[in-house]
Amino acid sequence: MSDVVKKTKAWLLDVIIGLNLCPFAKKEFVNDTIRYSVCEHKKLKNALVQLAFELKHLDEHNECETTLLIFDTGFKSFEQYLDLVDLANGFIEQEGYSGVYQIASFHPDYLFEGEESSDTSHYTNRSPYPMLHLIREESMERVLKSYKSPEQIPIDNIANARRKGAAFFEAYLK
């Protein structure tokens, strides 16, 4: 297992699952149904080729619930990463995957639009590496039906992040 995957798994376990930022992640982590795909491409076109490969892999492997497409060397600039996210979402729509898969985005410098750059809420989407989380929509819908107040999840996450404070996240992500 590469150091990139080890660091990503540790972040998932300690931050995402440990702080319950995603109440659905623990089951998939424990069941080992998360695919970790490290992409070394730095160019948008090549990253989209890798995205297409990962979507096809999900199509062909129902035992794999979700994929983290991790960019260990590329897309370090948040602006460049946002271009990737836009193109990836466009690719999903163009290739007929709308309603089948969705993308959640994570980046070491993630910033929510309209929030002060110092706001700790950004840490709910900050990760050790830029990554695209490919999620099966059908699975997400099923899980959300069994969750009391899914709309409360991001609100709780922001409150949780603010309680923990920036120093906690910064120390972990360094």
Describe the structure concisely:
The protein is 48% helix and 14% strand. By secondary structure, it is an alpha+beta fold. Helix 3 packs across helix 4.
Return Rg in Å.
16 Å
Oligomeric state? single chain
The rough form would be described as globular
SSE succession = HHEHEHEEHHH
SS elements, strand count: 4
- Count of runs of 4 or more consecutive helical residues: 7
What strand line-up does the widest sheet have?
1-2-4-3
How big a fraction of the residues is strand?
A: 5-15%
| Number of separate structural domains | 1
Instruction: Report the span from N to C terminus.
Output: 20 Å
Main sheet makeup: 4 strands, mixed
Low-confidence runs of at least 5 consecutive residues: none
Broad structural category? alpha+beta
Mean pLDDT: 93
Give the secondary structure arrangement, pairings included.
Layout: H1 3-17, H2 25-30, E1 34-39, H3 44-60, E2 66-71, H4 78-94, E3 101-106, E4 131-136, H5 137-145, H6 153-164, H7 166-173
Helix pairs in contact: 3-4
Question: How would you characterize the overall build of this protein?
Answer:
The protein is α+β, with helices and mostly antiparallel strands and 174 residues long. The chain has one domain (3-173). Helix content is 48%, strand content 14%. It has helices at 3-17, 25-30, 44-60, 78-94, 137-145, 153-164, 166-173, and strands spanning 34-39, 66-71, 101-106, 131-136. The chain has a 4-stranded mixed sheet with strand order 1-2-4-3, sandwiched between helices. β1 (34-39), α3 (44-60) and β2 form a beta-alpha-beta unit. α3 crosses α4. The model has no long low-confidence stretch (mean pLDDT 93).
